[in-house]
Amino acid sequence: MSRDMKKLTGLVAATFTPLTTDGAINLSVIGSYIDYLTEKQSVKKVFVNGTTGEACSFTVDERKRLAAEWCLQGKGKLEQVIVHVGCMSIKDTQELAQHASSIGADGIAVISPSYFKPTNADALRMFLKEVGASAPDLPLYYYHIPSMTGVALEVADVLNGIEKMIPSFKGVKYSGTDLRDLGQCVCYSQSHNWSVLYGVDEQLLGALVLGVHGAVGSTYNYLGCKMKQMLSAFDEGNMTQARDIQFKCMDVITFAKNLGFDVAVNKQVMSELSGLALGPPRLPMLPCPISKAQTIAQKIKDSFCLT
Ligand SMILES: CC(=O)N[C@H](C=O)[C@@H](O)[C@H](O)[C@H](O)CO
Ligand SMILES: CC(=O)C(=O)O
Questions:
Q1: What's the number of CA atoms in the CB half-sphere (13 Å) around residue 33?
Q2: Which of 100, 106, 132, 152 has its CA 20 to 30 A from that of 251?
Q3: CB–CB of 300/252 below 8 Å?
Q4: CATH hierarchy code of domain 10-234
């Protein structure tokens, strides 16, 4: 298995999951989705089956077929495909981890179980160890998203000593807002050459100042190009330009949140902006309001002067 174990850095799009109008997974869209990301957004790394991908609403079999298609279609076009494997059942998670390895994924990420929750860092490390052991050849990233899992253990505590338990551990996708904890994660990660990837797109610039190595998010699907400009401005020390782009991003996300911005609306916004037919969300309780998405898409176009 020839695998490029390159450190994960830069912008990573957390992909949406294309569905047919009657709610089945639609693998046929993934090829053009990859072309859109690579050609129109210059984004060459993806995080599949995450929050944005509604993974927790899909079966293990559907998740395997999605991950396999992203890896297959991404060959020669995408630089890295990271597969999220978190499920309530550790057996399902391990099955998905093994599968990710068998299809040539470049890494796996996992959320904490969120029904029965780990009550301390030791317990969470033990869980991560069991997951890592199922795919020891793949980089493993812990996906911290307390707003969804309700597991708000300090990640810096979870990292402490984890390298001795999990040789394949390679970093964190941090979707929390505690900048002190985030900073301590970056600090600890430096000596292990791990990646800390930030996941709250509207405040990425603050995380860059603390030294994160990249970002995973939903908005990089349609604002990848613009946010890349922010990363370049930051690298060049052009803080005025970096802030200008971040403020625009904050403004459109605040606008969207005030209208009601969930994964279903976000998916429809992506369909509007990209022209890809991503279809409805999986859960029937989630709304599919085209007019709301059109309003948000128009706001994004106006703010960022997109055509
Ligand atoms: C809860 C959620 O979906 N978070 C995403 C990633 O972690 C983000 O990319 C957000 O969609 C984005 O920051 C907009 O709020
Ligand atoms: C944003 C992100 O990383 C996710 O959708 O999982």
A1: 30
A2: 152
A3: yes
A4: 3.20.20.70
Catalytic residue among 143, 188, 198, 220: 143
Let me know: does 1 contact 260? Beta carbons within 8 Å.
no
Centre of ligand 1 from the C-alpha of residue 198, in Å: 10
Residue 206's pLDDT band, with cuts at 50, 70 and 90, is very high
Q: Is 6 a catalytic residue?
A: no
124 band by pLDDT with thresholds 50, 70 and 90: very high
ipTM score here? 0.94
Render pLDDT for 59-85 as a digit per residue (tens, 0 to 9): 999 999 999 999 999 999 999 999 999
Assign 81 to helix, strand or coil: strand
270 Cα: distance to centroid of ligand 1 (angstroms):
13
Q: In 3-state terms, what secondary structure has residue 51?
A: coil
**Residue 61, class by beta-carbon neighbours within 10 Å (0-12 exposed, 13-18 middle, 19+ buried)?**
exposed
